[in-house]
Write a structure and sequence with these properties.
Blueprint (H helix, E strand, L loop, with lengths): L5 E6 L5 E3 L8 E8 L9 H13 L4 E3 L10 E8 L5 H20 L3 E3 L1 H4 L4
Antiparallel strand pairs: 1-2, 1-6, 3-4, 3-5
Helix pairs in contact: 1-2
């Protein structure tokens, strides 16, 4: 049984981080990653997530089969579920929907970005 690593999101009211991904009946899990800059460490979760939404919408994100955030700081990788060999534009469109949902959860005060993990120094 494998341990699911934590995501870059955690509940605002304490507790553990949200899981990085969930069990899915889809054929594949992709990760859409956005890179941040150290200067953004002073931004709040809402501003960081709005930046992520904008980067994905503008095609300034990249798709991988593994979450980059676990091996490199200054990035967030969102899981996107789909089919094997899904075209990158389809994966990015799905990621945009996921990012907007996360933004709504942040704006509602349910979750925050784990800035300690995001801006860590490896």
């Amino acid at each position: 049984m494998s341990i699911v690593p934590p995501s870059m999101f955690r509940y605002n009211f304490g507790g553990e981080a949200l899981p990085e991904y969930e069990a899915s009946s889809y054929e594949a899990t992709y990760y859409v990653t956005v890179i941040f800059k150290p200067i953004q460490a002073s931004w709040d979760s809402c501003a960081l997530m709005k930046f992520m939404v904008k980067q994905i919408a503008n095609g300034k994100a990249f798709v991988t089969e593994e979450p980059v955030q676990n091996i490199s700081p200054l990035c967030i990788s969102l899981p996107v579920y789909g089919f094997d060999d899904a075209a990158a534009p389809l994966v990015l469109a799905s990621a945009l929907s996921v990012a907007r949902s996360r933004l709504q959860e942040i704006e509602a005060g349910f979750i925050v970005i784990d800035k300690d993990r995001l801006f860590r120094s490896d």
